[in-house]
Amino acid sequence: xxxxxxxxxxxxxxxxxxxxxxxxxxxxxxxxxxxxxxxxxxxxxxxxxxxxxxxxxxxxxxxxxxxxxxxxxxxxxxxxxx
Length: 82
What we know:
72% helix; DUF2630 domain-containing protein; Uncharacterised_Rv0898c; mainly alpha; 82 residues
């Protein structure tokens, strides 16, 4: 579970970064292009973290070792249909 807490802490930090980017855009510190680029990077990494956390939880639920879950590439995670 410690690994899960670390993943959640990383997610929280990235959400904070997202809020800071939006505030920086609103105050004129950065331009739209910079904000869009950085947000895209953050969103991809957030998706990867959430995917890893879901994998870990599913393995735990079904009696498997959650440490066998692996972060998947953004190209794979971004292609999921919900």
